[in-house]
């Protein structure tokens, strides 16, 4: 039996952080290592441009950064195809074809797009671009060009996969059974809060620890993490439930240590500075193999380039085959 194709992707707008790691990267490596799937990872530079069209340099630079992040967490190019979206022109073609199958009202009702537009007032003002409003259509192109069957995503992406499924059904109804309908599976990854306690970890919020951060950067960031504001002196009784240091200890420290840490904190027997130093050390250790692998790729950019080149070439072949079928179905197969 053929292995099911898994398709995932990221917008290259910044380096990846521990939120990405716990939220999706760990899961992708796990799925890859199970050997049961055929995983594809798309670096969605065209999608990144929908809200960074005025900053092409940023997108270009981050294609490499994201690729290095993948490689350093254990995405193995022998097992997973990593490729660049803009190098697959079929995705753009499919986007045009699919745009006839989607109404503007439907796009405007997409909860993810709606939320993002509200967050991007600064970029779009009162009126959003056609490209941004339409990015779910392009994402349907991403998925269907590669006949993605399983799409592991976070909650926020579910409306996009649902919209893709609608497009697939409509296409198949009109033109014949050509496209594969994908299935979203919630990646059971945790959603990690920021160092400041914000629900989301993100670059714009300045509250992230990056996989590429140096030991010094990690320590500095952990020292600035938000703790129980009522605790001023060491012997004040602390509340770990509202302390970000305790929150991260839960992710990076041994269970028995966490228990002791919280007990000492509640009893006013543990200072925040010591507690932070211990946490920083644990994060540094956990991320060490990733950081070392990343340093390797940073000093071997030609290897990263080659991996992207080969992955993209393989992906181009797959997309070509899909396009052949699509054009035939749409009566657009004029001549070879
Ligand atoms: N929209 C996704 C995100 O912001 C990235 C993405 C682009 C994607 N194309 C995709 C995810 C296709 C899954 C499948 O995270």
Describe the protein's architecture and organization.
The chain is mostly helical. Helices cover about 55% and strands about 10% of the residues. It is built from 15 helices and 5 strands. The chain has helices spanning about 20-35, 45-50, 55-75, 90-100, 105-110, 110-120, 120-125, 130-135, 135-145, 160-175, 215-225, 245-250, 255-265, 270-300, 300-330; strands at about 5-10, 35-45, 80-85, 150-155, 185. The strands form 2 sheets. It has a 3-stranded parallel beta sheet. Strand 4, helix 10 and strand 5 form a beta-alpha-beta unit. It is elongated, with a radius of gyration of 22 Å. The protein starts with a strand and ends in a 7-residue tail after the last helix. About 40% of the residues are buried. The mean pLDDT is about 95. The protein binds tryptophan (TRP). Tryptophan binds near residues 44, 143, 151 and 157.
Could you list the spans in which at least 5 consecutive residues all have pLDDT below 50?
Answer: none
Q: What coarse outline follows from CA principal-axis ratios? A: elongated
Q: Which range best describes the helical content: under 10%, 10-25%, 25-40%, 40-55%, 55-70% or over 70%?
A: 55-70%
Give the rounded overall mean pLDDT: 95
Order of helix and strand elements from N to C terminus: EHEHHEHHHHHHEHEHHHHH
Q: What is the tally of helical segments?
A: 15
Ligands, deduplicated: tryptophan
Strand fraction equals: 5-15%
Major sheet description: 3 strands, parallel
Radius of gyration: 22 Å
Strand order of the largest sheet: 1-2-3
Number of strands: 5
Q: Structural class of the helix and strand makeup?
A: mainly alpha
Q: Could you state the oligomeric state of the chains shown? A: single chain
* End-to-end Cα distance: 32 Å
């Amino acid at each position: 039996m053929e292995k099911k194709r898994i398709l995932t992707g990221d917008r290259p707008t910044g380096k990846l952080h521990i939120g990405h790691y716990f939220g999706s990267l760990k899961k992708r490596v796990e799925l890859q290592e199970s050997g049961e799937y055929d995983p594809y990872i798309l670096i969605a530079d065209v999608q990144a441009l929908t809200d960074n069209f005025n900053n092409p340099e940023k997108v270009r630079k981050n294609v490499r950064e994201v690729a290095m992040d993948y490689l350093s967490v254990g995405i193995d190019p022998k097992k997973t195809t990593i490729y660049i979206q803009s190098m697959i022109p079929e995705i753009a073609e499919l986007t045009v074809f699919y745009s006839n199958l989607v109404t503007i009202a439907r796009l405007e009702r997409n909860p993810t797009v709606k939320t993002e537009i509200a967050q991007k007032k600064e970029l779009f003002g009162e009126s959003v671009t056609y490209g941004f409003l339409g990015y779910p259509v392009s994402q349907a192109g991403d998925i269907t060009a590669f006949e993605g069957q399983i799409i592991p995503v976070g909650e926020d992406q579910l409306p996009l996969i649902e919209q893709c499924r609608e497009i697939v059904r409509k296409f198949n109804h009109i033109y014949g059974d050509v496209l594969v309908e994908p299935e979203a599976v919630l990646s059971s990854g945790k959603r990690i809060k920021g160092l400041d306690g914000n629900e989301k970890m993100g670059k714009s919020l300045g509250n992230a620890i990056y996989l590429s951060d140096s030991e010094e950067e990690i320590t500095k960031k952990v020292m600035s993490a938000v703790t129980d504001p009522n605790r001023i002196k060491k012997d004040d009784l602390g509340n770990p439930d509202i302390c970000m240091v305790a929150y991260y200890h839960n992710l990076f420290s041994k269970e028995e240590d966490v228990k002791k840490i919280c007990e000492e904190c509640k009893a006013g027997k543990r200072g925040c500075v010591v507690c932070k130093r211990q946490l920083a050390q644990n994060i540094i250790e956990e991320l060490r193999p990733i950081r070392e692998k990343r340093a390797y790729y940073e000093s071997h950019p030609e290897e990263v380039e080659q991996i992207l080149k080969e992955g993209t070439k393989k992906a181009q072949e797959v997309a070509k085959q899909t396009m052949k079928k699509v054009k035939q179905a749409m009566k657009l197969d004029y001549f070879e």
